[in-house]
């Protein structure tokens, strides 16, 4: 399976359980790994035969900078669903969301969530 990776996309959002997170917001980084058969794109050199990286960014941005979520898990799930809705060539996606300096007791560089979903997970 072929992979397209878009790494370290940065967004400012208001996600979290604590009121200060919802009020002040913070920076988040997101990595996405999109898997599918992109062989035709390699042969034709046509964007229509692949997934547009710029559109991947825009789909992610709309969610990360939109409605506030309590959990990173919910953000990741929403991004996954939106990617499958947006890109018919997408077969599997892995999303990693990183939240630097979380407001929880202790010393942390960051906390994060990684999810992997397949198109079949959304088709009944």
TrEMBL record:
Residue span(s) of domain Dihydroneopterin aldolase/epimerase: 4-117
UniProt keyword annotations, A-Z: Folate biosynthesis, Lyase
Residue ranges the record marks as coiled coil: none
Gene Ontology MF terms in the entry: dihydroneopterin aldolase activity
InterPro entries given in the database record: Dihydroneopterin_aldolase (IPR006156), FolB_dom (IPR006157), GTP-CH-I_C/QueF (IPR043133)
Enzyme class: lyase
Pathway(s) the chain acts in: Cofactor biosynthesis; tetrahydrofolate biosynthesis; 2-amino-4-hydroxy-6-hydroxymethyl-7,8-dihydropteridine diphosphate from 7,8-dihydroneopterin triphosphate: step 3/4
Catalytic activity: 7,8-dihydroneopterin = 6-hydroxymethyl-7,8-dihydropterin + glycolaldehyde
EC number: 4.1.2.25
Function: Catalyzes the conversion of 7,8-dihydroneopterin to 6-hydroxymethyl-7,8-dihydropterin.
Family listed: Belongs to the DHNA family.
Protein name (database record): 7,8-dihydroneopterin aldolase
Organism the protein comes from: Allobacillus halotolerans
């Amino acid at each position: 399976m072929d992979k397209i990776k878009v790494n370290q996309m940065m967004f400012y959002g208001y996600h979290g359980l604590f009121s200060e997170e919802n009020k002040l917001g913070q920076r988040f980084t997101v990595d996405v790994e999109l898997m599918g058969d992109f062989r035709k794109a390699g042969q034709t050199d046509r964007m229509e035969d692949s997934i547009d990286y710029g559109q991947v960014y825009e789909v992610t941005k709309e969610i990360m900078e939109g409605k506030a979520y309590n959990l990173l898990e919910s953000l990741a799930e929403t991004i996954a669903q939106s990617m499958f809705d947006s890109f018919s060539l997408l077969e599997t996606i892995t999303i990693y969301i990183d939240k630097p300096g979380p407001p929880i007791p202790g010393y942390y560089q960051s906390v994060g969530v990684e999810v992997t979903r397949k198109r079949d997970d959304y088709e009944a």
